[in-house]
Amino acid sequence: MKDTERLRRITQTLALIAVNPYFVYFASRLTYQGGLKGVCVPGLNCYACPLTVFSCPIGSLQHSFTLLSPRVKGSVSRAFASFFYVLGSVGLVGAAVGRMPCGWLCPFGFLQDLLYKIPTPKLRLPAWTRWGRYGFLVFLVALVPFLTATSWFSRLCPAGALEGAVPLKLVPPALPLPPSGWFLWLKMAILAFFLLWFVLSSRPFCRSVCPLGAMLGPCNRFSLYRMAVDERSCTSCGRCREVCPVGIDITEDPDSADCLRCLRCRKACPSGALRAGFKIS
Amino acid sequence: MRVKAWRGKKSSVSWLVLALCALAVGISFIWEGPRTVYVHAVIICLDCIGLI
Ligand code: SF4
Ligand code: SF4
């Protein structure tokens, strides 16, 4: 299991650097304004982060819903263009590799993996909490922004607080930000809650909250990259479930929408019963 | 060898979804492509996360 984990740490670290390489900000105090900002990454990385050069797919999707809102006039065609663009981009990734970016690339997933290593008593998440991420997608990313024309998911998002609000407050941009009121404290309280949860439970945000996980997860059912169980080799020893960061039994459903395709189970299986790879035809 | 969720599964669904998503991205370019995403990310994302 060590090899897979080491490789995963390397890809997660490289992805973190590749998505947030704009250290010029510290000298210029101006955020990146180039064309890459129009590209959504397959992971949760705040587009308000002063170091990032890419966009967040969830923030962008949510913005499409605010543009569709009856409170915003004359923006329907922009909303649809943005919808098609964002959903198409996420769908391309999902259809190719399913939820694999969650296991191997996403910076917020990486943070959860690291914090969970802190030795403390751990809390198991009940399986029903997985429905939370669909609720956040439908209500906070779509319905509430549509009704209020305000990006409520991003306002409350702990990734936005950690990668956007904290660095921008510590190293302010050239055009100074207005003074922060109680809302910044609310954001910090939400962030603190999640950071503590990341120490106590394995990947709780990915399992229960993340709307991008909710979109990519069902793609595991039909993506070109698949996992499978050789039922004759499997001895039902349960080792795969023990090591799984999201606590699922891959032998029951190799296409589970919860699976991050991290491949810890495949490496841990003593009888080599788990397969993973691209099935092109 | 019996392999759960591997054999008998057609990759045609994957290819179909890939084609539809590529089409969706292509169609977005008839309007403006990533322009709205870009403008939002560059200009208004600070408002979006509640900083301004
Ligand atoms: S589910 Fe987790 S790993 Fe996947 S995009 Fe969301 S935060 Fe990142
Ligand atoms: S089932 Fe295996 S690949 Fe999927 S999340 Fe669990 S350990 Fe990772």
* Overall mean pLDDT of chain B: 83
Q: Structural class, judged by helices and strands of chain A? A: mainly alpha
SS strand fraction of chain A: under 5%
Q: Could you tell me how far the N terminus lies from the C terminus of chain B, measured between alpha carbons in angstroms?
A: 60 Å
Q: How large, in whole angstroms, is the Cα Rg of chain B?
A: 19 Å
Question: What is the beta-strand fraction of chain B?
Answer: under 5%
* Widest β-sheet, arrangement of strands of chain A: 1-2
In terms of per-residue confidence, which ranges of chain B show pLDDT below 50 for 5 or more consecutive residues?
A: none
Biggest sheet features of chain B: none
Secondary structure category of chain B: mainly alpha
Mean pLDDT of chain A: 95
Helix-residue proportion of chain B: 55-70%
Sequence stretches where pLDDT stays below 50 over 5 or more residues of chain A: none
Number of helices of chain A: 14
Question: Number of DSSP strands of chain A?
Answer: 2
H and E order of chain B: EHH
User: What ligand molecules are bound, each kind once?
Assistant: iron/sulfur cluster
Largest interface: A-B, 71 and 43 residues
The rounded distance between the terminal residues' Cα atoms of chain A is: 29 Å
Which term fits the overall shape of chain B?
A: elongated
Multimeric status of the protein = heterodimer
